[in-house]
Design a protein that fits this description.
Elements: H1 5-25, E1 41-45, H2 51-55, H3 58-67, E2 72-77, E3 92-97, H4 106-117, E4 120-126, H5 132-140, E5 142-149, E6 160-162, H6 199-214, E7 225-230, H7 241-254, E8 258-263, E9 277-279, H8 284-291, E10 296-300, H9 303-311, E11 315-319, H10 324-327, E12 335-338, H11 344-356
Parallel strand pairs: 1-2, 1-4, 2-3, 4-5, 5-6, 7-8, 7-10, 8-9, 10-11, 11-12
Helix pairs in contact: 6-8, 7-11, 8-9
Length: 367
């Protein structure tokens, strides 16, 4: 069955508008290097409402921080709740959000645009050339240089472009190719997600973890390893509870001296098993600090998986529907496993073997 009529009509309107914009306003974007010594104020645009996609910006943010340590950086995203995840970088000054409700209120949208245009940037970076929202924001933002990927037939307000990377490139590493506009290569910078937790935040995360466990009767100091697990995910990525039950039973058998914590969410409010400890935290940065003090974190392909990896905890991602090469974890001690053709018991064994190979580092291993 093909797309419904309204979807086909919307696509035709979008294509027609793109053709009109290209014919009337498209200017030839340049590929020569942007003068790096002129860059003092930067605006990064990624209007998206999912945790994972926002965390995918962090390798580029770290690269920009290293390349332009004296510059100040603003970021424009979709929802407000992931904003704290980006505020650990020393050069980030403001994280602006673009609520969906603005699309239904033209006057509020106009006021928002005027507020955006009150700032002038030396460099505006559009991370997703395929997004009409991101291209529109790039057009409206006031900037001397506007950088993005080569749109290849799509209208784009960029003054400078770089080629879209060839082959399979992880979605979090793809933005690093934009650094070619300053003479750098993607491999010049760390190849991982990072929310830049401070040592103070990590210490507070350990204290919060301890407090949550003590409240549930755990005797701190039992020298047990702590593994967090998260069972929620979107649509076909979600793994059913029967699978988790079989996996958890085998994990307990293979790891008898390990404490397991079921991370709950608004959509998963009941723990999987009575003997599990639980944790729920809506503040994403605080959740990241708590996760950073665990010995490992296991979950499906979902935002908290990327948050855990970006927090530094060894993260094991379980892939049911999507491609690990594009969306998997990137930490040096992380691992992505595909469920197809395997069993919960086999996955539990693989995870146990992987965890046994990791070095014991930090306070999380000294309980």
């Amino acid at each position: 069955m093909g797309l419904p009529l309204h979807s086909r009509m919307r696509q035709k309107i979008k294509n027609g508008l793109n053709t009109l914009l290209v014919s009337l306003f498209q200017k030839e974007a340049r590929r020569e290097p942007i003068p790096a010594d002129e860059i003092k104020r930067i605006l990064v645009i990624r209007i998206n409402y999912r945790i994972g996609n926002i965390l995918f910006t962090t390798p580029l943010l770290r690269a920009l921080e290293q390349r332009f340590p004296e510059a100040s950086m603003d970021i424009l995203i979709g929802a407000a709740y992931p904003a704290p995840l980006l505020k650990g970088f020393s050069t980030v000054r403001n994280v602006f959000d673009f609520p969906r409700k603005l699309l239904k209120n033209p006057y509020a949208a106009y006021q928002y645009i005027q507020h955006l245009r009150a700032n002038h940037y030396d460099l505006v970076i559009n991370l997703n050339t395929g997004s009409a929202s991101d291209r529109g924001a790039t057009l409206l933002a006031r900037g001397t240089y506007k950088l993005g990927f080569d749109a290849k037939g799509n209208w784009s307000p960029s003054t400078h472009v770089v080629p879209v990377p060839a082959g399979i490139v992880h979605e979090a590493l793809k933005p690093l190719y934009l650094m070619q506009a300053f003479g750098n290569q993607p491999t010049d910078f760390p190849q991982k997600m990072d929310i830049a937790l401070s040592e103070s935040e990590k210490k507070q995360g350990l204290e919060e973890l301890k407090k949550r466990l003590l409240a549930q009767g755990y005797v701190w100091g039992n020298q047990k390893k702590i593994i967090g697990m998260f069972r929620d995910a979107r649509f076909e990525k979600k793994i059913d509870n029967e699978w988790w039950e079989a996996w958890y039973a085998q994990m307990k058998h293979l790891n008898p001296d390990t404490l397991f914590i079921d991370i709950l969410s608004p959509d998963v409010t009941e723990k999987l098993s009575e003997d599990l400890y639980t944790l729920m935290e809506s503040n994403l940065r605080q959740l990241g600090a708590i996760l950073s003090q665990m010995d490992a974190f296991v979950c499906g392909d979902t935002g908290p998986m990327h948050l855990a990896s970006a927090s530094g905890v060894p993260t094991i991602a379980l892939f049911k529907a999507s491609a690990p090469a594009l969306y998997g974890t990137l930490g040096i001690h992380d691992r992505s496993l595909t469920l197809s053709g395997s069993t919960p018991e086999r996955i539990a064994l693989q995870i146990t073997e992987h965890l046994a190979s990791l070095p014991a580092v930090g306070e999380a291993s000294a309980r």
